[in-house]
Specification:
360 residues, alpha/beta, Isopropylmalate Dehydrogenase, 2 domains, two-stranded antiparallel ribbon, binds adenosine-5'-triphosphate
Length: 360
Amino acid sequence: MINLVVMEGDGIGPEITAATLEVLRAADAAFGLGLQFTPVMIGHASLRTHGTTLTDAAFEAACDADGVILGPVSHHEYPPVEKGGINPSGALRKRLDLYANIRPARSRPGIPPRCGVPVDLVIVRENTEGFYADRNMFIGSGEFMPTPDVALSVRKITRQGSTRIAEAAFELAKRRRKKLTVVHKANVLRVSENFFLDCVRAVGKAYPEVACEEVIVDAMAALLVRDASRYDVIVTTNMFGDILSDQASEIAGGLGLAASINHGAIYGVAQAQHGSAPDIAGQDRANPTSLIGSAAMLLAWLGDRRKDNRLLAAAAAIEAALDRALADPQGRTRDIGGSLGTKAFGARVAATLEPSAASR
Ligand code: ATP
């Protein structure tokens, strides 16, 4: 039995989570995975019911689960922390030590990439330190105002954080096209970024088979637009990774396609790259590919850890079903030029996950 906690979140969260669960149930039936889903309330719904967007019980449920499916959250709409407004996404990343945020940007068959050539890269983003004020301190916030006219943000880079994200990136590059791009801003942030680079270089000594290049972040933004197909695995600090991954996903086809997983040594959380998209919430317009793809990444992550081929096969079958559905212009959601609703798209992907279709 594999217990997946499901936190549907805010905005389009409930809709894309429902579509994702439909696909996971089909995968469960086709591959005999023994998935069990435990719904856990977070976000605005939890604030209304329990007075906080993330209860202790919700956090404990995540700790006890084999994995979490996390919908997007509208955390910038929440009240201050002292009034119950905890960002569930940031809190889970910090408290479950989900140091690696793996964000693929892959063109899907039939959907033209915006840079003209097919893209298949993965951004490996450090997820627990950097500029993220809600998670880079032991107590308190990394942002503060010493006077009413001065605002400061502390950015934290550690040897442990940099080393473990570099290891995750080199391991991934070794399994892919053996090419790693390290993105930094060491020409300006000379101490912290050179420290990050030194940590990555040290890890790289154990991976002579991986070709490694270093690129300054502003140049990287331009190079991705020029030709994102040149890149395979990209490793960088938290905020650069956050920004570049939205850019790369948009170049590859659109944010609605952008899957990701947050993981540490123990826990894994599937979470779409995008936010809660309040502009289209409740209209059956959201593209659930992002969260369905994230759920497939979670199954693959669990499969790798447990050496369970059924989980790996189910993850691959979900990816293949997404490709098949997206290849048909009639089978797409509106963000990528189709007319299908969220629910219908999820049903379509689930329907192609019959055991016979999955092994085609
Ligand atoms: P938040 O307030 O939670 O950050 P946002 O709207 O500011 O949300 P995103 O949710 O990342 O930021 O959305 C950016 C744009 O991309 C919006 O126009 C949104 O509608 C669109 N978008 C994001 N996710 C999807 C999706 N899954 N399907 C379709 N469109 C999406």
